[in-house]
Amino acid sequence: MNFNYHQNFDTIRIGTMKDRAYYIPCALTRETDKKEDNDRVMLLNGEWNFSYYKSVTELNLVTESNIFTESNIEEEGKDKIEIPSNWQYYGYDSHQYVNIDYPIPYNPPYVPKDNPCGVYTKDVEVSLKEGYRFHLNLEGADSCHYLFVNNEFIGFSQVSHSTSEYDVTKYLKEGRNRFTIVVLKWSLGTYLEDQDKFRMSGIFRDVYLLKRPESFIYNYIIQTEFDEKKAEVFIQFDDGDSHISKKITILDNKNQVVDVQETNENKVCLTINEPTLWNAEQPYLYKIIMDTKEERIIDFIGIRKIAIEDRILKLNGQAIKLKGVNRHDSYPDSGYVATIEKLEKDLRLMKEHNINAIRTSHYPNCPEFYKLCDNYGFYVIDECDIETHGAWSSQGIRDNEYYNLVMQDSRFEKAVVDRVNRLITRDINRPSVIFWSLGNESGYGVNIYAAIKRLRSLDSTRILHYESKVISSIEKGVITFEDLEIESIMYPELHVVEEYFKKEYDKPLVLVEYAHAMGNGPGGLKEYFNLFYQYDSLAGGFVWEWCDHAILSKDAEGRDMYLYGGDFGEVLHDSNFCVDGLVYPDRTPHTGLLELKNCAKPAEISYENQEYYIINRLDFTNLKDYLYITWTIRKNGELQAEGRIDDLDIKPHEKKKLQVNIPSITGERVYVKFDFVKKYSEELVKEESIVGFSQFDLSTTRTKIAHPNHSGNLKVREDKEDVYIEGEKFSYCFSKKSGSFTSFIYNGKSVIEKPVEYEIFRAPADNDMNEAGRMPHVQKNWKALGFDKMYPYTYDTTIEKVEEGVVLTCPLSLVTDHIANIAEINACYTIYNSGAVKVDLKVQVRKNIEYLPRFGMRFFLKKELSKCEYFGYGPTESYIDKHEGCYMDRFTDNVSNMFENYIRPQENSSHYNSEYCALMSDDTKLLFTSERSFSFSVSEYTREELENKTHNIMLEKSGYTVLHIDYGMTGLGTGSCGPFTFEQYRFKEKEFCFTYYMIPSDNCFKED
Predicted confidence band at 1005 (pLDDT cuts at 50, 70, 90)? Predict the structure, then answer.
């Protein structure tokens, strides 16, 4: 018998049982909905025999077609492999990361003849008992599988992320039984599963046998209706061909019975008086026990209603905001395999960072994930296993005329509808699921119409979502989108959102992807949250994305390293575009996650007309039941006063005056910080956790630098190229050619090891990739403008002796080869008798330069200056458009710790709005300060090193403490896949004066 179902439009699956809701039965004597420790479940996970073939044709040597026969499947597996897993982790085949393009030729339904294949075999002892049936469940295999039992063909299925269930009863025998599963890397389904992820293969979810009685509940659908007094729970059963007797019991969360019904009909209604409703903040679940004569099914019910009312997304009649993330199943050590422990770690981190919603981008997650979301409280956009993004580039260029090629190809209708059917049927009873999503980046067409029809025949109680409304030019006006209930867009500019609400609109809006969190970012997140709260019909958004995708490996020295696209020798790949999450692959939070946490905080304080006000950003919970506030006042980093506020009777969305008496403390660098502290423990968030903060500047004066100490007598001499300045404790060398110091010796010790440099470029952050020139298709970029190759061209240097010391004036231009001058600078250096230096840079930037990445100076300090103290936004990195997760204070740390170790090295660890920074060794201190705040960063690495190395493990230390002190720096934005840095955060000044002081050793200045 030949098998070629995997490239056939008409054989989407063979031999599978009818789709059903997910549940796990148990014996009448048990109360469990788990697979483990359940005598009705034979979990087949673990070690299997395995044979890998580079081509499926190796299973049949007598034909050139991409088919195989069952003649080879009896072969004992040569190797061993674990289920669940991806076989690439065992050295078979290789990893490949592709974002958009298909990894195979666009030739549906056909796939390459050299189609990698894995044959799994396992011998299992089965005790057959008369009257029981056995159903084999395979919850996930990429991309398709053929099932054999005792060398007899059972069936075929090709949806990677959905359960396939087979009745194998008649194929089993008492005692030893052989299960063989043949998994192919590619199939017709490959054309529908072109998601932005590593392409991996194998059985990556649970495989198990269910033991079922002859008569049993096969499927059930639970729906609820409620008013203020009661809830009615309607259950529709599918008992197969019989109407079996059923006892249905509902219990509250204290295990008290609230209703019991017995019936042999296929419908039943139970009543809950004075019900407690489910929401993400208070995820109250009722237990339901469904008993038949020989079996028990346990499930959980959340009573809730999701609806759109007055163009506002509401749950249980209350407007909600989705503060969400897009999440892939992606783990550095296990690929697609998501254990309960790993899922709970993800969800715990999300809860701790105020995330309340998840989009399962772009396929259904494992069934247990949704039960965890029910229990812990998350809103879920449940997305179908459909993405055909590769059609966009299937004609050789990315052409919108072909974007919906697959969705307009009616040959795919059966497969598309099948995927939607599986999604809804499996997850229909999960209260956390509030949206059904038809898929991602596939365009609109006849197959979407068919999918919507099937979806609505199965469920009308949830919101229908689909973002991808791209059609060809000739279809505009013909294809309409009125079936979609919510408007969904990706990566909009702020004005796009604002314009949506300025015009006539009839649907709420959700940003299903925004704030691309790749590398150092996202920038501008706060502005999106401002819009969320400004427009009632803006339902919120989902940051792209939760985690960095990368493969854990070892370098030649045995050190851990993360690999991304191109690291596996693949020709087609999208480099590190997969490393774009809020957490590292091991789930260490990025600083972007801290930014999101404070943007999504449960309360917000404002200062208006000399009064503090607080607004409750929660949707269902009174603040008095959720948090209390601790406040502190610090002056110059020293604690001055503190207190606690418990009286927070503030209803959801309500704004009230905050009852607090903040003492008046005068002076500079005075800040009050309000910390929001969790009042009670939840399952994922401990009490006393800080869930957000607000901070305000109470300073009554600004810090000023007093006149310097004039004592001492300077010796000044010059030659053709340099000026030499000597004082009692110091000797400096100033280069007339570079317009900066080349030597800086204090107390006989060298402080500056290399010439100081003017700086306008930065190591491109991932979100700079288009603007900076990392991507060659953008012509007008920072590199094309010569910013990275800039050097100074100096004119005559003048020397003027003054009472305070000496003044060096050096006019110069910032130039680069073949390009007009970038900027003109009048540089004035005052070296005081004490050794302190004042730097005045009067700058004029060429008018037709839109903006600069930065303007500042770079110092190569001796590496012993390895401790840093500063007053500015910290303790983590901060930028003009990314500092909501930071606060103003005095911080001290080692330079080696002040480095955000992104997988692909890039600009990192700047500190915005700083008033001073000081670098210290055991015997030397070098202070940088200014009357105008500045940004700075310190690192063991140069920006060239960060730019030129592709992986953090490759970085080599410079041997210096590298200091950047910046008058201004362009923000980060989300330009890797979204808006470039917003206009207000670009460094666009054309004329400015940058003044700062360098003070060696102890302070030579008094601060007023």
Answer: very low
Q: Which of 540, 522, 523 is nearest to 531 (CA)?
A: 540
What is the Cα–Cα distance from 1000 to 878, expressed in whole angstroms?
26
CA 372 to chain CA centroid, Å, is 19
Classify residue 387 as exposed, middle or buried by CB count within 10 Å of its CB (0-12, 13-18, 19+): buried
CB burial string 824-862: b at 16+ within 10 A, e below? ebebbbbbbbbbbbbbebebebeeeeebbbbbbbbbbbb
pTM value is 0.96
pLDDT at residue 172 above 80?
yes
Contact present, 128 and 205 (Cβ < 8 Å): no
Q: Which of 535, 540, 485 is nearest to 309 (CA)?
A: 485
Residues 339-383: tens digit of each pLDDT:
999 999 999 999 999 999 999 999 999 999 999 999 999 999 999
Residue 253 CB neighbours (<10 A): 12
Beta carbons of 799 and 723 less than 8 angstroms apart:
yes
User: What residues have CB less than 8 Å from 818, skipping those under 6 apart?
Assistant: 786
Cα separation of 900 and 912, whole Å?
15
Sign, Cα dihedral of 775, 781, 784, 789: negative
Phi-psi region of 915 (alpha: psi -120 to 50; beta: other; left: phi over 0): alpha
Residue 198 token pair: 């590593």
- Return the percent helix, strand and coil in the chain, to nearest 5: 15, 40, 45
Answer for the pair 579, 977: CB distance below 8 angstroms, yes or no. Answer: no
Contact present, 431 and 231 (Cβ < 8 Å): no
Q: C-alpha angle 730/731/734, rounded to 5°?
A: 135
DSSP 8-state symbol, 497: H
Which SS3 state, helix, strand or coil, does residue 603 take? strand
Cα(806)–Cα(19) distance, rounded to whole angstroms?
85
Q: Whose CA is closest to 340, among 696, 35, 760?
A: 35
Rg (CA), the chain: 32
Pick the closest to residue 1005 from 933, 929, 936 (CA basis).
Answer: 929
Q: What is the DSSP string of 844-901?
A: EE-TT---BSEEEEEEEEETT--EEEEEEEESS--BTTB-TT-EEEEEEEEGGGS---
d(CA 239, CA 220): 9
Model confidence pLDDT, tens digit, residues 375-403: 999 999 999 999 999 999 999 999 999 99
Q: How far is the C-alpha of 524 from the C-alpha of 543, rounded, in Å? A: 12
pLDDT for residue 67? 54
Task: Indicate the burial class of 978 (C-beta count within 10 angstroms; 0-12, 13-18, 19 or more).
Answer: buried
- Do residues 754 and 960 touch, judged by C-beta distance below 8 A? yes
- Amino acid, res. 503: K
Q: Which residues pair with 126 in a beta bridge?
A: 175
Q: 639 forms bridges with which residues in the sheet?
A: 634
- Does 74 have pLDDT greater than 70? no
Q: Rounded to whole angstroms, how far apart are CA atoms 132 and 140?
A: 25
Rounded distance between C-alpha atoms, residue 189 and residue 415, angstroms: 8
**Burial class of 449 by CB neighbour count within 10 A (0 to 12, 13 to 18, 19+):** middle
Q: Please name the residues in contact with 228: beta carbons below 8 A apart, sequence gap of 6 or more.
A: none
Give the model confidence (pLDDT) of 241-293 as tens digits.
678 999 999 999 999 999 999 999 999 999 999 999 999 999 999 999 999 99
pLDDT of residue 853 exceeding 60: yes
- Catalytic site positions: 441, 513
Whether the Cβ atoms of residue 960 and residue 860 lie closer than 8 Å to each other: yes
* Both structure tokens of 543: 């940051």
Secondary structure class of 726 (helix, strand, coil):
strand
